[in-house]
């Protein structure tokens, strides 16, 4: 990733960068679609190291003044498919840097990708609601 | 290392951690699928036997959110298996993302509203309870009456 894209000078490049990230993240989720085991790891943290070189002195400075950054900082998003050690060859590592201005848009799309990707979670229990409806109808009938 | 009961509390405590250690704190989301267990679920007392067997054949997935600060060693975790919670959790990640980016705080209202809308539906544990209720019809109305307020999140009554 070049410094230019990281700093977000060109919107076109930024869009492409995020779009690419989401496409590849969706691929990672899709690769687990019919599998019965596996993990996807997503992480996020402040991306200070790009703007400030992480020398001991700047680190110490930052730790001393933790809540006073001069201006909003980008955040770093990482994703992996959890392959390590013996499966290192098939490990997928994705990362992207999201500018503060892009955050709302990013998380909206992030939510979409995660919702469509995390298919093996327990679905919402609709039978319960149906049951309740039935009961309510029944009760209404009895009353009338 | 602590597992926190509600996503709301996890969000609050994570935000505090990020505020105090903004440089080193990170939030990790782990989505993991594990093969179905051979044994039946640990609640054999449930009368919803068909439900239990159905669930045990499909792979189980869970989401684990972890906010970790390597400097102080603090780790805050929240875990769920419900698909209905995903959007709320990503929203929480977005809120934490804002904190990490050192953007000014959003109005808290937004997040809570979404939680409100979704909370009554996200009642996985109540599913079994309800299934039990189905067996005995006499009890049923009581069960359904208490259900809306008792949806997982400690919204109105702080049931859980």
TrEMBL record, chain A:
GO biological processes: SRP-dependent cotranslational protein targeting to membrane
GO cellular-component term (any): signal recognition particle, endoplasmic reticulum targeting
Name of the molecule in the record: Signal recognition particle subunit SRP14
Biased composition (Basic residues): 125-144
Quaternary organization: Component of a fungal signal recognition particle (SRP) complex that consists of a 7SL RNA molecule (scR1) and at least six protein subunits: SRP72, SRP68, SRP54, SEC65, SRP21 and SRP14.
Subcellular compartments: Cytoplasm
Ribonucleoprotein listed as a keyword: yes
The organism of origin for this protein: Zalerion maritima
Sequence similarity: Belongs to the SRP14 family.
UniProt xrefs under PANTHER family: SIGNAL RECOGNITION PARTICLE 14 KD PROTEIN
Pfam families: SRP14 (PF02290)
From TrEMBL, chain B:
An annotated GO BP: SRP-dependent cotranslational protein targeting to membrane
Region (Disordered): 21-66, 97-160
Compositional bias of kind Basic and acidic residues: 129-142
Domain SRP9: 5-100
One GO cellular component, as annotated: signal recognition particle, endoplasmic reticulum targeting
One Pfam family cited in the UniProt record for this chain: SRP9-21
Record field: compositional bias (Basic residues): 151-160
InterPro entries referenced in this protein's UniProt entry, alphabetically: SRP9-like, SRP9_dom
Biased composition (Polar residues): 21-32
Protein name per Swiss-Prot or TrEMBL: SRP9 domain-containing protein
Organism whose genome encodes this protein: Zalerion maritima
